[in-house]
Amino acid sequence: MKRTIPVLFLALGCTHIDAGHVGVEIAQCSGGGVKDQPVGIGYHATGLCTDIIEFPTFQQTAAFKDEEALSVNDSMGLPIKVDTVLNFTVDGSKAPAIYTKFRRDLDDIKASYMRQVVYEAVKDVFSGLTAQQLYSDKQEPARAAIQKLLMEKLKNDGFVVTQFTINKTTVPENVTKAIQEKVAMIEQAQQVEQGLRMTEAQAKKTIAEAEGAATARKLAADAEAYANQKLASSLSPVLVEYLRVQKWDGKMPMVTGGSGAIVNLGGGK
Known about the structure:
7 helices; 269 residues; four-stranded antiparallel β-sheet; 23% strand; alpha+beta; elongated
């Protein structure tokens, strides 16, 4: 038995799958192939005809920038260079299928297959927009549309997209300058339009205040006229005579005769 144990260890190998990884077991001998079930974390014995390849299941990054930036065209045929970053994870349950399809490690898959998939998605979306739109208000909608395409495409291959980012879009310098000038003109026009709206609103407010004051004066005048009318209609001859008597001091009016004598019209002494 003491001699048998070393022989067994020479005949068998041992592979450890680290945390954050899954293994893909490959039978190399005749009639072998890739096992459908992934290999879990821990130590695993391997025979002379067995290999185990690790696939990371933690987040991965595929960056295409600088010399690796993607070159596409806008809707007018203008060339645009796009710096992008794709963050994703591997669906561990599909690691055997990934290896069966690509027969290469994850770094090679990112540099070849994923780059092509990202390129196709960016090209499709950017071809429907102008450089000016991508430079101003359409870049975020474009990014979201590309991310959606990537999620749908790569999910079928066992990759889960967590985030797609457009770091920079670059167009020829003369085009950039023209776009900047046009954007500045648009912003200036919007500011002028906003100023006109504010002026119009202030004018409407002033008119409304004037109309309100005029209406108030008319209502006051109408109320006063109505009150005078009601008062006049209520002054009967009897009431007028009564008011006159109320104000009389009891003395008869005095007049001067032609001789200079004062005559009492009341007939008293």
